Amino acid sequence: MHALSELADLVVPGFRFAGVAAGIKKPAGALDLGLLCCDRPAAAAAVFTQNRVKAAPVILSAARIARGGCQAIIANSGGANACTGREGQRDAYQMAAGAAHALGIDEQLVCVASTGVIGQRLPIERVLAALPRAAAALRPGGLVDFARAILTTDKGPKWAAARRLVGKKEITVAGVAKGAGMIAPNLATTLSFVVTDAACDRVFLRGLLREVADATLNSITVDGDTSTNDACFLLAGGAAGNATLRGDDKAGRLFRELLHDVLAQLAHQLVRDGEGATKVVTIEVVGAESVRDARLVARRVANSPLVKTALGGADPNWGRVLAAVGNAGIEIDPDRIDVDFGGVRLVARGQAAGGDSEARAHEIMQQAEYVIRIHLHSGRAEASYLTCDLTHEYVRINADYRS
Questions:
Q1: How wide is the angle at C-alpha 349 spanned by C-alphas 348 and 354, nearest 5°?
Q2: What are residue 391's phi and psi, to 5 degrees?
Q3: How far apart are CA 110 and CA 254, in angstroms?
Q4: DSSP H or E run through 185
Q5: What is the C-alpha separation between 212 and 256, in angstroms, rounded?
Q6: Active-site residues: which are they?
Q7: SS3 string of 105-137?
Q8: Does a cis peptide bond (omega within 30 degrees of 0) precede residue 27?
Q9: What percent of the chain is predicted at pLDDT more than 70?
Q10: Could you give phi then psi for residue 224, rounded to 5 degrees?
Q11: Which DSSP symbol is given to 220?
């Protein structure tokens, strides 16, 4: 992960950030309420969880993003505000209204995000009391405090930034994310907040975020569970003064590369910090009949508890990989499949490669990162997923998460 000292120095022109302690989570004094604000209404895009059980902030923010722009986001950790009924919906709207009042902006330009335990009401009076302090604490270099305020079981803040010339203007894209458990995204994952000083057309921005999120944040897994609160926000403030980005021209492609770079870094950090994780493994599927087929296989292998526990024990149990491939719901020819662990061929034409391959693969599997490559020999399409190992520590963390 990047050094926090670098995050403390990071500035995105046109944006200010803050993180304060509102008394939502323990220990007392921990930052748990984050606020980000653009100097003017920004072009906005977002993708949200496709879990049918949606948290109140997701419902509120999805409706507001669909209607127009966004100028500020208020985010809390320590409580998901999910499965909290009408009271929870009212709490989300009160958070947005309180932030709008503290900032002196239109309430419809404020979105809300929450993370933490499901089913518990937020201490809304504490949140509302802290909002003026959050607004007063806003500063260009405050992204480090915002990043800290959204953490739950994370070991530390996750962030990424990239800059490059787009035309004659330098463009900055920066993002922070939280998440270590309940990660198996369906459209978006965990909470991610990305801001840029680029001027972007809203329609272009929305299509681009869906595309890039699908290739990055939506191609990772820690434990196979999709959250009720997943959201990824992208705000483009326009302070760079560039010609408005509208489509697939050279400038648009350069911006896409910037966004992909930032989201890919965040995705990798999310898996690296997976609860109890000791390894990051790329499941790479090639030779599929379609990209859809490749993604289905990669996701099925990446989510398999049996595969993930084998990763934890550095056990080259390739039979578990083949079993997962066969359970992905696509047509395959098992007698044509090859499987490599870290470049070592373990399966050739659906059978054990033999020799000392398992011993060599065992050594590779003790590394912090490596690739499992599955060749289906059915076509030319490919896809990949990032996953991590499943360890005793994951069970310990989640067995007493609420206590």
A1: 30
A2: -125, 175
A3: 29
A4: none
A5: 8
A6: 189
A7: CCHHHEEEEEECCCCCCCCHHHHHHHHHHHHHH
A8: yes
A9: 96
A10: 85, 5
A11: B
Choice among 60-69, 186-195, 386-395 with the minimum mean pLDDT: 186-195
Q: At what angle do helices 305-312 and 291-303 cross, to 10 degrees?
A: 60
Q: What is the CA radius of gyration of the chain?
A: 22
Tell me the pLDDT tens digit for each residue of 344-357. 999 999 999 999 99
H or E stretch at 171: strand 169-178
Distance between CA atoms of residues 246 and 236, nearest Å: 12
The label of the residue with tokens 């599955």 reads: 374
**Dist. CA 399–CA 395, nearest whole Å:** 6
Which element (helix H / strand E) includes 28? none
Quickly tell me which residue has 């999310």 as its tokens. Answer: 270
pLDDT at residue 187, as a whole number: 47
Q: What is the pLDDT of residues 271-292, one digit of tens each?
A: 998 888 999 999 999 999 999 9
Question: Rounded to the nearest 10 degrees, what angle do helices 202-215 and 250-272 cross at?
Answer: 40
Contact predicate 127/106, CB 8 Å: no
Distance CA 265, CA 174 (A): 11
Gap between the Cα atoms of 76 and 291, Å rounded: 37
The first and second tokens of residue 360, run together, are 């060599």
- What are the tokens at 337? 């499949």
Task: Name residue 231's beta-bridge partners.
Answer: 48, 191
> Who contacts 269 (Cβ-Cβ below 8 Å, separation ≥6)?
1, 158, 160, 177
Give residue 58's Cα distance to chain centre.
15
User: pLDDT (tens digit, 9 = 90+) per residue, 70-127?
Assistant: 999 999 999 999 999 999 999 999 999 999 999 999 999 999 999 998 999 999 999 9
- Cβ atoms of 35 and 18 closer than 8 Å: yes
Q: In this structure, what token pair is assigned to residue 58?
A: 């997701």
Structure tokens at 50: 């496709």
Assess contact for 46 and 209: CB atoms under 8 A: yes
CB 353 within 8 A of CB 347: yes
State the Cα–Cα distance between residues 113 and 376, nearest whole angstrom. Answer: 41
**DSSP at 25:** S
Q: Helix 291-303 and helix 318-326: axis angle, to 10°?
A: 130
